[in-house]
Amino acid sequence: MNNKDSFDLPSLNEARKRIGDIPYVDFNLDDDCRNLGKGKTYFIKTHGCQANQRDSETMAGILDSIGFRANDSEKGADVIIINTCAVRQGAEDKVYGEIGALKRLKRENPDIIIAIAGCMAQEEKTIREISAKYPQVDLVFGTHNITNLPKLLNNIYHERKRLIEVFSNMGEIVENVPVTRFAKHKAWVNIMYGCDKFCTYCIVPYTRGKERSRLMEDVLAEIKVLKEEGYKEVCLLGQNVNAYGNDLKLGYSFGDLLEEAARIGIERIRFVTSHPWNFDDRMIEAMRDNPNIMPYLHLPLQSGNTEILRRMNRRYSAEEYLELFKKLKETLPHYAFTTDIIVGFPNESDEAFEDTLKMVDYCQYDNAYTFIYSPREGTPAAKMEDNVPMAVKEERLQRLNEKITFYANKANQKFKDQIVEVLVDGISKRNGQAYSGYTPENKLVNFTGNDVKVGEIVKVRITEAKSFSLDGVMVE
Ligand code: SAH
Ligand code: SF4
Ligand code: F3S
Predict the structure, then answer these.
(1) pLDDT value, residue 476
(2) With a 6 A CB cut-off, is 37 part of the ligand 2 pocket?
(3) Separation of 435 CA from ligand 3 center, angstroms?
């Protein structure tokens, strides 16, 4: 511990433990924090997955509720929060670059508060590093400490010294927390937090804690309100959404939640991520029978080789994955499928990698997120010898990506000259004259049209199918 700062280091070892019941509590704001942000602004930079995006919306909601206003960049903001991701080393390196760049702002205005939040905050090595090398950071708070943000800021404004609050093992569920959603037509809805799968390469079970589900009535109430507010789409969030409810032991499962959510009648329901190990017929039936559950499934493979899967602790063999995939394809023929794949896991031989390519040839995914294995300190895989040379990892990634692109293109050609429904997100990032949005199958469409309104579902005729997007013209 650094003697300048007073704090306890978080502990990944502690975070591994799965102890205690989950308290369900309501958000509570101390009276002396109510006007803390009056006349002040904030900026939040978000890295990582949808869970982090949703957490940033919570931070924004909390800050808005105590008088802060959002600023549109770091420059000029009184509070700057970097919401970090620890899933791969590359994600962490980016954050250190950003913290470094903030040094100048802090020098120009020592009154600003620079805060580090998110998954990196849960790692002791991050705290050590920040403590030793980044004096410009005023506050570090963990993924279990978000609802304490007003108290933490209040403390810094009074004491004017660096504060670090990271609970390694907490995991209460706080309801009725303020939220400022960044979009007005589609919303993230947490259905569960944490992960108990402990894939050997993955840091998430340590940074996010024990798997814990929100009560079904709370989730459904949130979706009802979103529908009333005019939202067209909800995306149900969890690291393994299909383990939903297992911890509650109230007799309902993810399939039941999907069925009930669909009944609310919101136009589009999505969910991420489902783990191949937790599929059941109830869930598949709910997907088959409800047209407002979008025909898109992200089914992470990670590797096509059974021995590597075993060393990854993925809980399925290549054959079991294939069996599930076939069953899903048969029951849900109109679905688009995407996946995640890691190359270069310890001991991945050429033959093992070929098994992954074979699986891709069989499944012909609509798209895939592909990664080079990145050892995460504190995980079991980090103790295995990282014995695939970087040049080999890079070559494998490239071969894999070529295959993925080929099948992505093939899948998209099916949409050429078709009319698809697009939920409009806004002006296209690629072409300022065009709009963009997603089809039910989660295909990105860039299109032109007159009087296009953000947040509406419009019909678009596809004129060109590219590998990772479709071009089109609005027809109505
Ligand atoms: N809960 C989700 C994924 C969370 S992380 C799920 O199980 O699908 C997103 C993806 O990052 C993972 O699917 C995996 O492919 C990749 N990933 C996780 N840890 C990694 C590591 N140490 N190195 C490389 N890729 C990793
Ligand atoms: Fe990580 Fe595995 Fe949990 Fe996904 S299921 S978050 S890959 S441990
Ligand atoms: Fe990254 Fe944490 Fe999400 S490690 S992927 S932000 S759960």
Answers:
(1) 72
(2) no
(3) 30
